[in-house]
């Protein structure tokens, strides 16, 4: 089965609609962070980067005076729950393997515990941990990381580089096992 790429995912209209809210720049940067961290942690690059790209797709807009009111937003926040569902639906629609879709959905659900009444830090799998850490690395006070801009063309270029690296490493792995 042909791999569903990060570029395939990004090129869906629904992906760009939802990623617009939390910022394409943040999504792509977190996917790049996740690639480096996943290589070091020896976890699935495909799962970690897909989860990272989609981790904030559950965000909704909470505007006040034309700007996101971040504090108010956080009080009502269920973005990880919405994101998990949206990511799953999107991947299945793209023909993704159902187990991959489930793993990505779970990593999106658990990328933060800010909406939960308890901490989950030591209960994440290594891949889920990579996604949470990759996100934390790009975070700025007051949610400023959500406002950094990036044109869709640049996003496609950067995601294509990640896809190429993943495919290269996957073929190296195959080479070793043959
Ligand atoms: Fe994030």
UniProtKB/TrEMBL annotation:
Q: Which CDD domains does the record match to this protein? A: HDc
InterPro entries reported in the protein's UniProt record:
HD/PDEase_dom (IPR003607), HD_domain (IPR006674), HDIG_dom (IPR006675)
Segment forming the signal sequence? none
Where does the HD domain start and stop, copy by copy? Answer: 23-140
Instruction: Give the species this sequence originates from.
Output: Halobacillus naozhouensis
Protein name as annotated: HD domain-containing protein
Q: Which PROSITE patterns match?
A: HD (PS51831)
């Amino acid at each position: 089965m042909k791999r569903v790429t990060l570029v395939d995912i990004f090129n869906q209209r629904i992906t760009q609609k939802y990623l617009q809210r939390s910022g394409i720049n943040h999504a792509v940067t977190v996917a790049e962070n996740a690639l480096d961290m996943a290589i070091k942690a020896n976890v699935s690059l495909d799962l970690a980067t897909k989860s990272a790209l989609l981790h904030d797709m559950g965000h909704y807009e909470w505007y006040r005076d034309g700007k996101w009111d971040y504090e108010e937003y956080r009080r009502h926040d269920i973005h990880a729950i919405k994101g998990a569902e949206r990511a799953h639906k999107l991947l299945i629609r793209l023909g993704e393997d159902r187990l991959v879709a489930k793993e990505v959905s779970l990593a999106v659900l658990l990328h933060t515990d800010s909406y939960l009444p308890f901490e989950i830090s030591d209960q994440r799998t290594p891949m889920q941990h990579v996604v949470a850490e990759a996100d934390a690395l790009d975070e700025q006070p007051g949610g400023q990381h959500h406002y950094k801009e990036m044109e869709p063309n640049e996003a496609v270029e950067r995601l294509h580089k990640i896809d190429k690296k993943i495919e290269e490493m996957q073929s190296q792995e195959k080479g070793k096992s043959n």
